[in-house]
Amino acid sequence: MSARRPHWPRWSDAAPTSPASRLALSQALARHAGQHDYVLLDCAPTLGLLMINALAAADRVVIPT
Fold first, then answer.
1. Spatial distance between the Cα atoms of 42 and 2, rounded to a whole number of angstroms
2. Residues 6+ apart with CB under 8 A from 1
3. Backbone angle region of 21, left / alpha / beta, with phi > 0 → left and psi within -120 to 50 → alpha
């Protein structure tokens, strides 16, 4: 998955407006549970909607320093 595509709308920079919007990625990944050993979510270092979705969907988080 790519966090940013040129044709994607800028909704990813908007503040989440509902709890359901924070779980969209988690729900999408749940439909494919068991099909993959690992899913890597690489996000930009901003606290936007994509990052919040990635954190909500993640079982583990690696934060490089």
1. 7
2. 39, 41
3. alpha
The whole-model pTM stands at: 0.64
Q: What is the pLDDT of residues 7-57, one digit of tens each?
A: 444 545 445 567 777 788 888 888 888 898 988 988 888 888 888 889 989
CA-based nearest residue to 41, from 56, 31, 30, 27: 56
16 vs 3: CA distance, rounded Å? 16
Using CA atoms, how far apart are residues 12 and 34, in angstroms rounded to an integer?
Answer: 27
For residue 50, count CB atoms less than 10 angstroms from its CB and return exposed for 0-12, middle for 13-18, buried for 19 or more.
buried
CA distances from 59 to 13, 41, 51 (A): 23, 11, 14
